[in-house]
Amino acid sequence: MKPVYINSVGSVSAQKTFDNSEFLNEITEYNASTVPVIAPNYKEYIPPAAARRMARGIKMSTVSSKNALTEAGIENIDAIIVGTGLGCIGDSERFVSDIIKNDEQFLTPTRFIQSSHNTVAGQIALGLGCKGHNFTFVHSAVSFESSLIDAKMMIENDEAGTVLVGGVDELVDHHVETHRLIGHIKKEPVASQELLQSKTEGMVMGEGAHFFVLSNQKAPSCYAELLAVKTFNTLSKERLEENVLAFLERQQLGIDDIDLAILGNNGDVNFDPYYDQLGTSLFKDTPQAYYKHLSGEFDTATGFAFWLANKIIKTQTLPEVVQLNAIVPAKLETILIYNQYRGENHSLTLIRKC
Amino acid sequence: MCKGVAITGMGAISAIGNNVQENYEALVSGKLGISRISKIDTVHKNDIMVGEIGMTNAQLKEKLGIAEETAVSRTALLAMLAAEEAVLQAGITDINDCETGLISGTTVGGMDQSEKYYFEYFETDEHWGHINGLHAGDSTQKLADHLGISESFVSTISTACSSAANAIMLGARMIKSGQLDRVIVGGTDSLCKFTINGFKTLMILSDTYNTPFDDNRKGLNLGEAAAYLVLESDEIVKRDQKKVLGYVKGYGNANDAFHQTASSENGDGAVLAMEKALKVSGLTPSDIDYINAHGTATPNNDLSEGRSLLRIFGDKVPEFSSTKAFTGHTLAVAGGVEAVYSVLALQNNVIYPNLNFTTPMKEFELLPQTTVKQKELHHVLSNSFGFGGNCSTLIFSKEA
Amino acid sequence: MSELKQELKEKIIEQLNLEDVSVDEIANNDPLFGEGLGLDSIDALELIVMLDKDYGIKLADPKEGRKIFESIDTMAAYIAANRSN
After folding, report:
1. Which of B317, B157, B348 shows the shortest CA–CA distance to B340?
2. CATH, domain B5-239, list 3.40.1160.10, 3.30.70.1790, 3.40.50.2300, 3.40.47.10
3. What is the ipTM of this complex?
């Protein structure tokens, strides 16, 4: 199998992550149930004529993907693959709301066009003039991983040499308010540092855009090698350990080979037990990290985890703010990311220093 | 990478039939499914025509054995009915007896319900069950649960009107590369005010029957449908001694990179997609016996697609037709129902008529097949194009 | 008429989100599409909605828009001749 290199990263998140020369140098703490991105100055990246119709998700993605392409030192790519749980849902919501309020009259096309889930991948292709493979995955918490799987398969099977892959989601009012009604989003604000101690149901919702250049060629900017990605539509707590071990075994690895496990705890008292299950059994002697107190939870929050894992390997530093247990890693070479959302759509992603 | 991708089961529900057989009978008897809209109370009801499925949500639930009060979108219900049929035909008794995935395409997700209760959610909790049903992955998840698929790769693709075509393509690639042994692929979309009004703002809805490739075409009719194929690896076909309906022989995906909603004048993306699909299949244009065109009947698509066909096939364009005059444009599912139709064409050696065609387009001398035609078919090419420049081509063949 | 033209310029800037353009920069005979203001086919659809909503003029075929939206002059003339409110 051909190795798949992660040559660059790009991030716009609730932390100041859009500058690739920094790595969580300053942490923004929140006391909220929603955490929006710290927006870069979009005007520096996007000409006004192009920006005028762009949804926020597209703006975030434009910055994040541009940063990834710049860092990888390339202008052309063979494929663009984007994961998004909800697409540019801000525009979808306004379009529905206008339909109802205006009784289906005087509606304008821009909102509808931006509502199409593939608008981000389409607009990036349009901007770059990239006529290659163009996919958009929209499957809840495995949207980003589906994109990684597709990108990896393209590179391994020689269908593409270099792929831009990303995940993006927006934080939008109606979605937040309705999901708070049904208990998926916390009813009370929580301080970032107390997220895992909140003992309440629901999550703190965030947003972000994370893009990466994957390639069959190792660039000077290379961060790590993508070893394996696997998703599971269902997985019970009882079956977790067995499946994680089987996943590692397919890479001829054991649990001792994992230098750091990045877990997706989001402070939901009902679903964090999945992470606790692994944390207290299989991973009990493994250094563990978490990140959703920094990024918030959203369908493509694992884009932030993937960014974090790559940064840790490249910089060989593990920021204190993400450490979940007291075990100090002996080295930072092989990192496993495990995530699930509300007990469904589990994913395992493995990267290694190269 | 030289593995075959066998099709062992198919299921479909559209405006022209509640199962594959009914769809086929309508296609060969020229019975179209386009009418005025009856199930959605829209102010545009007298300005548009649609390809609406006859069954109500209550009837669908009853057929599926789902309690009436369960909160499920129409999108998910249609998916369940079509996928059940596909799995049944494939003779699958234990869906988890090998690595089985599910890849579904959709554009509207649970919008058909969300748009009804958008503001009502804040007044009463009666419909809160639909709140988390809006996102596009919801119908796929419910379908996976319905089929009993567990601990597996289940994902959703949304690339506008090429979604199901891309789901089939991804499934074929995952089987070829050995990641899955079996995968259920296709798509589902229900009619809703959201898409009706969306396409209305783009001014590409016809106020009468859609007329693909006709010079006087006025736009598309929206339709609703769900369609799924069961794809299996050579090993599973051999192990279970499966009857193979056809093979996914080629696939190509490209981006037009021209405009957010319109196709380039000369169909650059379409040409690239067809070229890639031919390359993957190892076939030449002269091997293609029939083209099931995207043919939405919008001024832009049919011109662009027609030009792309001329660029690929030169003066030897094989018989081609768009079946959208029958079903309407079923958005995400277009490439799914048309995959089912392509395989049926291969099985029956029949080419479907491009209905409602009377006047050739001024720009070129392309004439679609307008009557049912018997012809020995070995390879059928199917196109699906969408917003965002997404262009996809699939090639279905009798032999691996 | 000049009032209507001024109004149109303001509305176009607002409706089409042309943040970096000011009313003074649009001359009455500047082409709105292509070379001039650089509007595209999606903007044309937005302007068709504006005609409907603000002036009660319904266009059935987007192609009709091409001539009407050539410039502020042509737009104002068409609106003045056809407006119902």
Report:
1. B348
2. 3.40.47.10
3. 0.98
